[in-house]
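Researcher: Next sequence.
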Amino acid sequence: MFEDLANSIQQLILLGKGDVGRLEYILDLLKKGKLLPASDQKYLENILTLYPISKDLESTQYERIIEELHKEIETLNEKLLRSEKKRFEKLIGKKAVFFFVTVFVGWNALQPYMISLLNLDMSNGTTQYLFPLNVLASYFTAGSLITFIFILMILAWPFIGAVLLVSYIKTRKLYA
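Model: Next structure:
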């Protein structure tokens, strides 16, 4: 009887059920062979009915270890998701900036075609506001440089997409 009660109290302590300090105190009293006060006896009766205990102390320890491992796995999964989200947001931010730079350079590179396509008769003042990169390039006598940069940027997009696709596939294989 004493050993069953001591085992039950140890299992409650291992599982973290009830007031652990009080349970340790009660276990200590039992081991010393002292009588339990009525309040402690009533507490034990109540807690043992609340939490039915198996006779096997090892299974309780395994259950607790498994429970702790589940919590640790959940924590690691949350950290992994936050890390992926940060990486994804950083990557999307870089792509968005590159996209808008490509559009800006393309707008300036395609200036002659835009003007003729839209049949615009623009004064020099309006051109500098609508196509500022071309005005800047005219100071450096590098008008065709903008078109060259635009072509390089357009050609970079499929390469960037392929690299991102490969990295996405690799991350999916890691979690599969």
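Model: The mean pLDDT is 77. Residues 2-55 form one domain.
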